[in-house]
């Protein structure tokens, strides 16, 4: 659906040149929610604006729905953009227009008949839960309501792709959860492909099927969000589970420090109790946490495993047999 191949973007020339993107390649499949995670200055906004050519890449290829965007004529590019909606961090609403007028604007530009515009606006405001706000103005709305208007406006021309430029970063946590839930519902009901950029790990864990981590204009890793968060050693795992401070007071001779990632059904099993009963070992819990990534539970345990060497080895072997792949970090 969306494919970037070796995309680079440089602003300026010579000594004043600033490189925003460096050989970025990623692929967004039909119907998925794909997140690009990165801190301020990583190149996220430049990347998403290269998809609909609000920024033209310096090099590389951009393909959307099978079309080579960089080879399109101006008229063909305008037509292609009709299939790509975009929502913004700071809403970008017209203060002089009502909620209905803001949603209607792209349809008026596209030349839709007035009757169809009214019907479509009513349909969209019902979809985003603002049917009773049609005649209100942006100044009368909360931040979450403004973003819902922005989402309705982006959906107006019936796009197949929705681009989200830090759409929740200006919202409080409760409103963020509400807007993310709306995006997931839209994704499922309309089969919409969503590419979003964010610096918030909670956004990735909440709704993203796949994710790419962007650092200094480069993609340092990408894949399924659940897989990357659950696998020790990945950048996303490190961001989700920062390295803990050394735990004092528990350092038994012959003990083994174990880090265990748990996904899905494994996250509900009494693993430490099973090890103690089956192998006669002690498991001293140092840290533990449980997350929900989309609909999947993902957990992490850090513990000290002590007992006779053969019992400890047996316990680690058992964990491997269960497909848990225990890590034994250096203390």
From TrEMBL:
GO CC terms, sorted: plasma membrane
By its UniProt entry, which Pfam families does this protein fall under? Answer: ABC_tran, NIL
Which superkingdom heads the taxonomic lineage of this protein's source? Bacteria
Record keyword Repeat present:
no
The residue ranges of the ABC transporter domain are 2-241
Cross-referenced InterPro entries, in alphabetical order?
AAA+_ATPase (IPR003593), ABC_transporter-like_ATP-bd (IPR003439), ABC_transporter-like_CS (IPR017871), ACT-like_dom_sf (IPR045865), MetN_ABC (IPR041701), MetN_ABC_transporter-like (IPR050086), NIL_domain (IPR018449), P-loop_NTPase (IPR027417)
Q: Which GO terms describe its molecular function?
A: ATP binding; ATP hydrolysis activity
Kindly list the residue ranges recorded as spanning the membrane.
none
| BP-aspect Gene Ontology terms | amino acid transport
> What keywords sit in the KW lines?
Amino-acid transport, ATP-binding, Cell membrane, Membrane, Nucleotide-binding, Translocase, Transport
Record's family?
Belongs to the ABC transporter superfamily.
What PANTHER family does this protein map onto? AMINO ACID IMPORT ATP-BINDING PROTEIN, METHIONINE IMPORT ATP-BINDING PROTEIN METN
What does the function comment of this entry state?
Part of the ABC transporter FtsEX involved in cellular division. Important for assembly or stability of the septal ring.
| Protein name, as recorded | Cell division ATP-binding protein FtsE
